[in-house]
Amino acid sequence: MHTQMKIHLNNALKASQSYEDYYKMVMALALEGKTTGPNTSEDYSTYTRLNARRMKRWEKTLSISDGLEAEIRALQKPMLWLVLTESWCGDAAPALPVMNKVAQASPNISLRVALRDEHLGLIGHFLTKGAMSIPKLLQLEPETLRVLNTWGPRPEPATRMVEDYKAAHGSLTASFREELQAWYNKDKGKSTMKELVQLLFLE
User: How many CB atoms lie within 10 A of CB 61?
Assistant: First the structure.
């Protein structure tokens, strides 16, 4: 592994928090009208507030099928999941509760959350088509911090929606973002969960 990247990984892990602590932080920021990251505009505070409501809803409604839970429980080797994200990210609100649900189903998965904008050196190694897209999940070997796989920023069907819309319209609009959230709600986390479980067993 590139020495610089290992340093970035170690720094991010030292600064990381549990999903539970991240969730509490987002809820607190929403109440205070604040946000993570350097952009503290009203828009970003609003996005954080929206995401707090979404995460709360996902926590109440998200379920995992017996079949997928059995697959996760079959995992024999330890995995470390490090997620880079920010409280204002619209794709993170539906994704992180799913990641947590998967991690809870196995004693072999450790989930940690770090803020992207505090670790630009690290996200720079994991760009999506040249962009610092989040959430970005890094699946690591706990002992060596070798990067086994990555996932993000969204499941394949949502990625296709975004790419098709960008191809037709150039950039994403507020109305499209609402459509995307509607898709997430209808999908109920199934696409993300399925992809994350596949990720566990990819070599």
Answer: 11
Phi and psi based region of residue 189 (left: phi greater than 0; alpha: psi -120 to 50; beta: remaining): left
Task: Identify the three-state secondary structure at position 28.
Answer: helix
- Non-local CB neighbours of 28 within 8 Å, separated by 6+ positions: none
Contact 197, 81 (CB under 8 A): no
Tokens for 126?
């994991």
Domain boundaries, the chain: 3-200
Beta strands in 73-108 (DSSP E): 79-85
Query: What does the alpha-carbon distance between residue 190 and residue 54 come to, in Å, rounded to a whole number?
Result: 16
The answer to whether the pTM exceeds 0.85 is yes
186 CB-side CA count, 13 A:
8
Pairing assessment for the beta strands 109-115 and 79-85 based on DSSP bridges:
parallel
Q: Give the CATH superfamily of 3-200.
A: Glutaredoxin (3.40.30.10)
**Helices 190-200 & 66-73 angle (0-180, nearest 10):** 20
Residues for the chain: how many in total?
203
The DSSP bridge partners found for residue 84 are 114, 136
Q: What is the pLDDT of residues 43-57, one digit of tens each?
A: 999 999 999 999 999
Query: How does pLDDT run across 21-77, given as a tens digit for each residue?
Result: 999 999 999 999 999 999 999 999 999 999 999 999 999 999 999 999 999 999 999
Query: How far is residue 88 from each of residues 41, 49, 107, 129, 146, measured CA to CA in Å?
Result: 11, 8, 30, 21, 29
The rounded distance, in Å, linking the Cα atoms of 188 and 29 is 25
